[in-house]
Amino acid sequence: SLLAGLVVGLSGGLLCSLILMMRLRNGREIQTAIRRNQFHIVWQPVIKAPEMKFTGVEVLMRWAHPSAGAISPDAFIAWAEARQLIVPLTRHLFTLIARDAPRLSQVLPAGSKLGINLAPSHLHAPEFKQDILDLVDALPPNHFQLVFEITERDMLNENEASDVFNWLHQQGFEIAVDDFGTGHSALIYLERFKLDYLKIDRGFVSSIGMETVTTPVLDAVIALAKRLDMTTVAEGVETQEQARWLVDQGVNYLQGYLFSRPLPIGELIEWQARQD
Ligand code: C2E
Ligand code: CA
Ligand code: CA
Ligand code: CA
C-alpha cells in the first residue's frame, strides 16, 4: 500500500502539473499573473570594453508563479505571443521599467543605455508606436538612451520592418540585432537597415577558450559587424579568458555572469557600489 500510495501521489503530482501547463498555455494565467503582480524585472549590467566600465543595462522579465515556481521568459514570451498577449505583457513590462527608472538613474548617468527586448508581434502591432511614446513619457526626461533589441526574424517582412526601424531612428532610439547567427539568415537586410548593435549570441561566446576549438563563425561575425559599421555586444561572457579574447578582437561591449547576473534594482545598486 506504500507503493500504491506512492504511485497515486506521483500521478496526482503529474496530473496537477499537466493541468497547470494547460492553463498556462491557454493564456488566462498570464493575464491573471499581470493583475496579481507575479511578473517582475531584473537588470543585467553591460560593460564597455576595453576600459571595462559599467555603461548600461538590459532589462529581463521574470515570472514567479505561485505553484510552478520561476517560469523562464523563453517559455512565457512564446506562450504570450501565441495567445496574442504580447501587447498587454509588454505594456506591463513598460510599467515595471518606469517604476524602477528613478532608482536606476541614480546608478547610471544621463546618456546610459537601457536595452529592452521586443517581441516580433509587438513590433508589427498597430499600438506599437504609441506604446513606445507612452514608455518614454513615464521615464525620467532625456536620461536613458533606449536600445530596442530585436531578433533576425523581425526583419523578414521588409517593408513593415523598414517603417518601424526608420521611425525608431527618427525618434532617437537605437536598435540592436539580438541572438545574431541563431535565426534565419537576414544578412541582406543588415546592409539595408543600418541597425546600431549586433549582439553576439552566447552560443558563440561559450566556444571561446576550448583549446582545440577554432571559432571561424565568430571571427566572421565580428568582421561582418565591423564592415557594416555596427557596434558589437557579446553576451553570455562567463570567464576572464572569454572576456580577454573578445576585447582583443575589438568587441565593443560585454555582458554576462562574469560581471553580474541579472539583478533586481536594489541589488544592482549594491553591485554598482562595489565597482570602482
Ligand atoms: P536574450 O535577450 O538573449 O537575453 C539573454 C539571456 O541570457 C537572459 O536569459 C540572461 O539571463 C542570460 N544570460 C546572461 N548572461 C549569461 C551568462 O553569462 N551565462 C548564461 N548561461 N546565461 C546568461 P533570460 O533572462 O532567461 O531570458 C531569455 C530570453 O527571453 C531573452 O534572451 C529574451 O529573448 C527573452 N526575454 C527576456 N525578457 C524579455 C522581455 O521582457 N521581453 C521579451 N520580448 N523577451 C524577453
Ligand atoms: Ca536581449
Ligand atoms: Ca541574446
Ligand atoms: Ca536568447
TrEMBL record:
Every EAL domain range: 23-276
Keywords (A to Z) from UniProt: c-di-GMP, Cell membrane, Hydrolase, Membrane, Transmembrane, Transmembrane helix
Keyword flag Transmembrane: yes
Enzyme Commission number(s) from the entry: 3.1.4.52
Principal location class: membrane
Location(s), subcellular: Cell membrane
A GO CC annotation given for this chain: plasma membrane
Membrane protein topology class: Multi-pass membrane protein
GO terms of molecular function: cyclic-guanylate-specific phosphodiesterase activity
Transmembrane domains' residue ranges: 1-21
Catalytic reactions on record: 3',3'-c-di-GMP + H2O = 5'-phosphoguanylyl(3'->5')guanosine + H(+)
Protein name (record): cyclic-guanylate-specific phosphodiesterase
Organism of origin: Jejubacter calystegiae
Portion of the parent chain present: 239 to 514 of 514
